[in-house]
Amino acid sequence: MQDGGCSPTMDLLRSEPMQLVQLIIPIESARRAISYLGDLSLFQFKDLNQEKSPFQRTYAAQIKRCGEMARKLRFFREQMTKVGVSPSTRSTRDGAIDLENLESNLQNWKLSYLRLTQTMRSCKMLIVSIPSINLFYRRLVSYFSSAKKGAVAHQTEFEVQNTFEGSIEIPLLLEQEMTTDSLKQIRLGYISGLVPREKGMAFERILFRATRG
């Protein structure tokens, strides 16, 4: 890695004499060395690849990865700000941060956060729907209880009527038995559930058309 810089005597207005130097740094220690020199705020780096586009530079992929990590860090900061938590700052001059590990952790933390957010949203929707579900079950139990009582009363009345009329209307007995056998073969079913309030009118129209009014 080769870069140019100025001497430590440079001030903010660059009125001090400057000296152009060349540093040759092994690639495995380049990031730590450049980070340290940047923290000193005494050097100005010179771009030796001005003719190359951003996509042709040697470290374009690494810069893109760093930009993606910065985007995730901004995302976490925004989420922390929304809940009133101030993100803490920590100096990185010691160079103890492993970028590979940081990239993996940021991705895992973001996925975990998104899953947690989805779970919380589902829980809130469930909490809101619990009263409606509870009311629905009470109405359903009440409906089937009244229907069962009505069916039992109707069956009792039917059996009593057959008992008194059986002796004088023997020819009708076979017809009643055939009718009872045919009724036993009928299988009734039901569908129960809740319909969102905003879809109530559409559901009523569907029922009206399906049952022909």
Structure explained in plain terms:
This protein is mainly alpha-helical. It has helices spanning 30-40, 60-82, 99-165, 171-184, 200-210, and strands spanning 2-5, 21-24. The protein has a two-stranded antiparallel sheet with strand order 1-2. Helix 2 (60-82) crosses helix 3. The termini are far apart.
Key terms for this structure?
4% strand; single chain; disordered N terminus; 213 residues; mainly alpha; 59% helix; rod-shaped
Task: Summarize it.
The protein has five helices and two strands, in the order ββααααα. It is mainly alpha-helical and about 210 residues long. The longest helix is centred in the middle third of the chain and has 67 residues, at about 100-165.
Question: Major sheet, described briefly?
Answer: 2 strands, antiparallel
Shape: rod-shaped
Question: Helicity range of the residues?
Answer: 55-70%
Mean pLDDT: 75
Counting helices, strands and paired strands, the structural category is mainly alpha
SSE string, helices as H and strands as E? EEHHHHH
Strand numbers in spatial order across the main sheet? 1-2
Stretches with pLDDT under 50, minimum 5 residues: 1-11
The counted number of beta strands is 2
β-strand amount: under 5%
Report the radius of gyration as a whole number of Å.
40 Å
The CA-CA distance between the termini, in Å, is: 83 Å
Number of helices: 5
